[in-house]
Amino acid sequence: MSINQTLEQRGSRYGKFKDVASTTYALQEILRDAKNHEHMTDDQVIALDMICNKMARIVNGDPNYIENWHDISGYATLVEQELSVTTSDKEQSQ
Q1: Class of residue 52 by CB neighbours under 10 A (exposed 0-12, middle 13-18, buried 19+)
Q2: pTM over 0.85
Q3: Inter-residue contact 28 to 52 (CB < 8 Å)
Q4: All residues at 6 or more sequence positions from 76 whose CB lies less than 8 Å from its CB, including other chains
Q5: Is the distance from CB of 29 to CB of 48 less than 8 angstroms?
């Protein structure tokens, strides 16, 4: 498959890249302006960035594409798992 075919296929699934990028950036800016953003860990920030991108793909492309919804839950689960480990480590050290 050529890169143009890949881009065409992705565009029909996710929407125009420029639109997805614009929506993603707007969502990220909202989160970055929140009062506790600076207290978040790198993995939390990146997970939310990825979730913003998945949400942007949903609203600009095919909202019934289940992989986007699945990916959102995956990123949230990764942070949840890290918090569980971190919380467990803190409890054990006390």
Answers
A1: buried
A2: yes
A3: yes
A4: 47, 51
A5: no
Give the pLDDT band of residue 21 (cuts 50, 70, 90). Answer: very high
Say how far apart CA 32 and CA 50 lie, in whole Å: 14
Please name the amino acid found at residue 17.
F
Nearest 5°: the CA angle 32, 83, 28 is: 15
Report the alpha-carbon distance of residue 82 to residue 36 in Å, rounded: 18
What is the DSSP code (8-state) at residue 37?
G
Quick check: 88 pLDDT over 90?
Answer: no
DSSP conformation class of 33: T
